[in-house]
Amino acid sequence: MTRIVVGVDGSPNSRRALRRAVEEAELRGGSVDAIYVYPPAQRSWSDDLIGLAVGAASAIGSVTDDGPAHHPPSREQEAHDQAQSQLEQFVAEALGEAPAQEPRLMAITAGHPAEALIEQSRTADMLVIGTRGRGGFGGMLLGSVAHQCIQRSHCPVLILPPEKT
Question: What's the predicted TM-score (pTM) here?
Answer without folding.
Answer: 0.76
